[in-house]
Amino acid sequence: MREPADADARRAVAPVIAYPDDTLPRPDLDLYRAARAGATLTASVRVEPREAACFTVPAGHFFRIVSVEGPQVGDLNLWNRADLSERFYSGKTRALHGTHLGTGARMWSSFPAMRPMATIVEDTLDWYGFDAYGGAVHDVIGTRCDPYTGNLLAGTQYHHCCHSNLTRALADETGLSLAEAEGCVHDVLNVFMCTGFTRDTGQYFMKASPVRPGDHLEFFAEIDLLGALSACPGGDCSAEHSSDTAQCHPLLVEVYAPAQGALAGWAPPPVNGYDRSHGR
Q1: C-alpha–C-alpha distance, residues 39 and 55, integer Å
Q2: Is the peptide bond before 112 cis (omega within 30 degrees of 0)?
């Protein structure tokens, strides 16, 4: 198709940020950090390679995802512990905070609640930024490796991809059937994963994660949470995923309780204030 005469002028139009964040509620990171300084470890969950595990975090507590033995990425799901229909909404989180999350960014929940579920309070990979390829860590653009795409592209029946891992873990934790649990599994925060889009074709890419043992990503739970974390079968995602060929390592989830009174004045965020009349 021949370009129109004004093609260059059309391309030159300046972009506009779709969701300016000037009025977005800001987390009180100073309060959270002060509370974290006196917090004590109350639980730890080890997530084995090519498996997933669930964990719970009360509102006002902290949870940390830790690299413990070698470079490894993890796929994170979050739900309201009392209502699984309120779950992490990666698309809206991406629209509000960008393609990759860092300190101060929040994980927002699905409609109609649409409120902060967790706030990132510490990230030892903050230094990475965006590399020369456009890659960065902790993305909300990838969906999670799954057996359906594997079957579509390669005709495989692979059961230890992150989608299936999360499904099994949630079913085991809640007593839901696999079919019921699968309906609750959703798009993820790709913890420690280094990803971006190619500049020529716009394709989603992954590259070796910069994570090393001791690195961690830490969150403040804004509401009572049920979480599930999968130790991706891609390991550090330097070559492939959804197979047993990559070297994989465990991940650790730690939960910390602040001291009594450390969060004076704080309260869990209310559900979204939209009246849900939808024009009727």
Answers
A1: 18
A2: yes
Residues present in the chain in total: 280
Considering only CA atoms, which of 41, 8, 33, 23 is closest in space to residue 263?
33
Banded pLDDT at 275 (limits 50, 70, 90): very high
CA gap 164, 56 in Å, rounded: 20
Q: pTM (2 decimals)?
A: 0.97
Contact between residue 161 and residue 168 where contact means Cβ atoms under 8 Å apart: no
Say which DSSP state 97 is in.
Answer: H
CA distance 119 to 161: 27
Span between the terminal Cα atoms of the chain, in Å:
45
Rg, C-alpha atoms of the chain: 20
DSSP 8-state assignment for residue 100: B
Give the closest residue to 35 by CA, choosing from 266, 277, 280.
266
- Cα(204)–Cα(70) distance, integer angstroms: 24
Average pLDDT, stretch 116-120? 98
Report the percentage of the chain scoring pLDDT > 70: 100
**What amino acid occupies position 24?**
L
Q: How far apart are CA 262 and CA 103, in angstroms?
A: 21
Q: Strand 106-108 to strand 136-139: parallel, antiparallel, or no bridges (unpaired)?
A: unpaired
CA distance 96 to 105: 9
Buried b (16+ CB within 10 A) or exposed e, 176-209: beeeebbebbbbbbbbbbbbbeeeeeeeeebbeb
CB contact at 8 A, 256 and 41: yes
